[in-house]
Design brief:
By secondary structure, this protein is α+β, with helices and mostly antiparallel strands. The protein is built from two helices and five strands, in the order E-E-E-E-H-E-H.
Amino acid sequence: MLAIRLHRAGSKNRPFYRIVVSESQRTPRSRVAAEIGVYDPTRKPEVVRVDLAKADEWLRRGAHASDTVRSLIVRARALQA
């Protein structure tokens, strides 16, 4: 099963996350099927960029979004409107 989840990057005490699609049975650091956005919580205001077309396509294909990613997609839709 595919999962849409966060992949942590950045340095110590400076997290930066990529929103990726990967196999749910693998670790979040393993190979990814696609990168569909970024989330930077250290900036003020926080940076949330999600390719909503790609996210919708992966969700239609049966991928499951984590709770955090689901809330980030909702925020990205609100910012876009």
